[in-house]
Fold this protein.
Amino acid sequence: MYLNNKEMKTILITLITCFAMLSNCTAQEESGVTHHKFTVVKTDAEWMKILTPEQFKVTRRKSTELACSGAYWKNHEKGIYKCVCCKLPLFDSQTKFESGTGWPSFYQAIHKDAILEVADHSFGMERIEIMCSRCGAHLGHVFDDGPRPTGLRYCLNSLALDFEKDEKVSKK
Ligand SMILES: [Zn+2]
């Protein structure tokens, strides 16, 4: 069986389209954020009104605060750490540990759906970025050298967090 020119052309176009769709899908899967719907969405101007310039740089521009510079790496009080942008509870002080890095570190998120994990290839490193699942704020990165039980180390920027002290615990 021989294919005429028109049939060949159709097959070729179909193949090219399939390939294009496939590679497009792969790129989207890699970014991880593409299929996620953030429920809190604001413009840069709106974020600038409610955040300090430092908080804006970290959460909306993926900057990293200097080690040992933040408000929470040495905080040992009991309470909840929330997203500084949208106030979604992210981490419980019960899962905070001393990592020796100078950044607040946790071995577990308060709820698995609170955090979005995305592959980050910036600065020639292979890291996993963590974001707030509600507003997309950049929070820090997660590494696999944490303590038990999870073996994970969620390395946070203090500037991305808002600490709410547990009043009941501190009054006891
Ligand atoms: Zn948020």
About this structure: The chain has one domain: 5-170.
